[in-house]
Specification:
The protein is built from 5 helices and 5 strands. By secondary structure, the protein is α+β, with helices and mostly antiparallel strands. It has one domain.
């Protein structure tokens, strides 16, 4: 049983993501953003620094769960898959590679505002194997 509240909310909101027999492990964590990341993505740095971060392993794939409480105290967040540079099947611009290396690629979002760019999208900001697998 998962005791991490942010992941529990993710499971309740994104019911299709896990298989019934999925093996899930959660470890609450911190994330260190490099000065280069901060310089290139200052607004994103500010947002990520406010997040609760959980390292999540699902069926041997590693993710970062970023979660926040919105103004109505509802947990919202992003589940980002962690990718290794070896999994990229094309060359990335340096900023994209930095983004993926530090925070991963957005795999799922939950409890987002109605006008959020991530609504009804299957994936975002990947390098990677997920694009190759899903296309």
């Amino acid at each position: 049983m998962i005791t991490n509240n942010d992941f529990r909310v993710f499971q309740e909101e994104v019911t299709w993501f896990l298989k019934p027999a999925s093996n899930v492990q959660c470890i609450e964590s911190d994330i260190r953003l490099s000065s280069e990341f901060n310089e290139i993505f200052p607004k994103l740095t500010s947002l990520i620094e406010k997040a609760r971060v959980t390292l999540v392993t699902i069926d041997e794939l590693d993710y970062l769960l970023f979660a926040w409480d919105n103004k109505k105290n509802v947990v919202c967040g992003l589940l980002n898959i962690i990718e290794e540079a070896e999994s990229y099947f094309y060359e990335l611009i340096p900023e994209h590679e930095l983004l993926i290396r530090i925070i991963g690629g957005i795999r799922e979002a939950f409890n987002q505002p109605n006008d959020s760019f991530s609504n009804n999208q299957k994936f975002h900001i990947f390098g990677c194997r997920m694009l190759k697998r899903n296309w």
